[in-house]
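Hi, here's the filled form for the chain we discussed.

Project: internal
Contact: R.S.
Residues: 150
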Amino acid sequence: MVKENYACAYKEVIELLKYFSLKDIQRIPEDLITVFLENMDNEYEYTVEEGKPFEEQEMLDETKVIFAIIFRDYWATDYQRERILAKEKNDRRKMEEEKAKKYNSENLFKDKNIKREEKPEKTVALVKVKEETLLSKIIKKIKSIFSKNK
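And the returned structure, exactly as it came back:
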């Protein structure tokens, strides 16, 4: 599924690049464009809506990611690239902090202890089970025989 989405995204990238200036396309390495061309899904149909701005075009999330990477690596100014990388680093740091907080082993056990204390303890009562003796079974059988005859 993921590979299929990327194959379709590569097709979308190639179709969208047709509307970019030659100067912008030349800034992308030929190897990368070759990867898009070789791995795109030729059966997938994608049409660019002319007159619609790039931001409003319907496209897969993978296509957006690819263009974000192309912009960051090949089209952005040094200042833009620096800002993008700083934001990405900050976002990764925040995600790691959230994971560390969420999966901290001390916090996991604290939560379980709190929950356990809040629940009332269940009491278990033992009930004596009366077992039938051999003599009582015989008497019961005799009574059932006599009760059938009546």
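Let me know if anything looks off before we file it.
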